Amino acid sequence: MDYAAKVSLFAFLSAMTLWITTKIPAGYVAVSLIAFIIFMNAGEPQLLYQSFSEEVVWLMLGAFVIGESIKESGLAERFSQAILYRAKSKHSLIRGFTLALGLTALFIPSTSGRAALSMPIIKQLGTHFSSKEKEFLAILAPVIILMSTSATLIGAGSHLIGIGLLESTTDQSISFMQWLIWGVPFTIVITFITMYIVKLTLWPKHITSDSSDVLSIKNAHKDTSIKKIEKKTIIILVGLIIGWVTENIHGYDIAFVTMIGALLFMIPRYGVISWKQGIKAISWNLLLFVAAATALGKVLVDTGVVGWMEEEVMHYLHLFAGASEWTIVLLLSIVTVTSHLYITSHTTRAIVFIPSLILFGQSIGVELDTIVFLSLIGMNYCVTFPVSSKALLLYYEEGDSTYDAKNLLKISLVLMPIYVLVILLFYFTYWKWTGLSL
C-alpha cells in the first residue's frame, strides 16, 4: 500500500474504534477523520465537499420526508394498530412485526426503502414502550431487514450485479424462481434466529410482557375509517414502490425515485405535509455522519486498500484448491460474511469479490452458480457496525429511535458465527437436495 492508502486505512480503523468505544458524536468523528485524511495530504478537499453527493445521502433525505408523511397522515399509527390488534403480548407483537418486515423483502427491492417505511411505524410503536425497549426495536428493525434480504433476487442490488457478472463470464445463471426456492427457507430460519438473538441480548430482563400492556394500547384507538389524507399517502407509496421495483425499466436509481416521492408528499396545497415540515423532519446530524462515513468507506476503494485486501484474501484462497467440499464452503462463507468489515458498500463487495471468486471457482473446477449464490448470501451479512449498511445508518443516532453501536457489535459477535453455521447446514441439507452443489 502507498502513503495515501495507509493514511486512509488508519483513519477508517480509528473511526470504527471511536464509534464503538467513546461517546464522541459519530458525525463529529467521521467529519474529523475525513479532514485528517485531507490535512495529511492523503486526499483532496473534494473528498469532503463531494461526500454530500453520495446516493445514500439523498436516499436518506427523501426517506426522512416520506417517514414524516406516513406518520402525519396517520398511516403509521394504523399499521402499528393492525400489528397490535393481532398481538396477545409484547412478545407476539415482536414476532408479528418481524414477519411483516421479512415479507416486505418480496416486493420492495431496497433495504434502505424498507428501513424508511419501517421507521415511522417503529416510532409509533415506540410511544408505548420504555427507552430500553425502544432501543431493542431500533436495532431489531434494520437487522431483520438485512437478514431477510436473501429471500429474493431483487432483495439487494448486489444480487443482480452478481448474477450479471456470472452471466457475462459463463453460460450459467440463477433464475428468479430458483432463487426463491433456495432463498426463502434460509431467510425464514435466519430471520427468526436473529429475532431471538436480538431479544435475548437486548430485551430488558426486568420488564414483564403480559397481555394487559397490549390490551391497553389496543383500546386507545378504535377509529377504523380511512381518511382522505391516508388514501393520498397510500397512492403515493404504491407509486413509490412501483418506481423502486421497476428501476431496471425506467433507469432512475432508488435515491432519485425516493426524492421524487418526497417532493410529491410536499406539493403545496395538494401534498401530505408542507415543505417546512419535511425539512424539519430531516436529521441533519445523521446526514452529516452518513455523508462522511460513506466517504471514509469510498476512499478505501479509491486509494487501493480494498484491492490490496482482495489480493491477499484470494492468494490464501488459492492455497485450498485441493481442499474438501466442506472446507471450500466454510472458507467461502467466512470470507464473504466478514467482507463487510473492510468493504462497507454492499454493491462494492459484489463488484470486488464476485469476479475473483468466479475465477477461483473456475480454477478448482466447481459449479460457478453455486459459488456466486453462496457468496451473495454471505455478503448479505452486514450487521457489525452502523456504517456496514444504509438500513443501520438510517436508525443510528436518530432521535428516540436509536441504538448504541456497542450493542450492535455485541449482537454481531453472536450472530456472525451462527450465520456461517446456518449457511453450512443449509448447503449440506436443503440446498443439496434442491440441486445446489459444488
Automatic annotation (TrEMBL):
Keyword match Metal-binding: no
Keyword field: Membrane, Transmembrane, Transmembrane helix
Keyword Ubl conjugation: no
Membrane topology: Multi-pass membrane protein
Location within or outside the cell: Membrane
A Pfam family the protein falls into: Na_sulph_symp
Segments crossing the lipid bilayer: 7-40, 93-115, 136-156, 176-198, 229-246, 252-272, 284-301, 313-335, 347-365, 371-396, 408-430
InterPro entries, per the entry: DASS-Related_Transporters (IPR051679), SLC13A/DASS (IPR001898)
Protein known as: Citrate:succinate antiporter
The species this protein was found in: Terribacillus saccharophilus
